[in-house]
Design goal:
Elements: H1 14-31, H2 47-58, H3 70-81, E1 83-84, E2 87-88
């Protein structure tokens, strides 16, 4: 049986995420200054459901600590929501 392994590149550090958002928004604003840019925050995570699923698939080899949590997703969501004087600020 092959177990799923998370690639290190699947997780983007918060500061890198922040800088990526900044670059994306800046590029879009340069392409079209009148464009409406909508950033969507990460969705909530069903932590209990994810743990139950991992246990049902991997049994004892399931991770005891989830790799994604609402707390961590919330940090990324806050980066999307910050605004400054009607303009996106990260």
């Amino acid at each position: 049986m092959r177990y799923f392994q998370v690639s290190e590149r699947q997780h983007v550090l918060l500061e890198e995420y922040k800088e990526n958002l900044r670059k994306i928004v800046r590029h879009l604003e340069e392409c079209s200054p009148t464009m409406l840019i909508v950033l969507i925050t990460p969705p909530p995570i069903d932590e209990e459901g994810r743990q139950q699923y991992a246990t049902s698939v991997y049994g004892e080899k399931a991770m005891t600590a989830l790799e994604r949590t609402n707390e961590v997703a919330g940090n990324y969501g806050q980066r999307c929501k910050k605004r400054r004087a009607g303009r996106k600020s990260f």
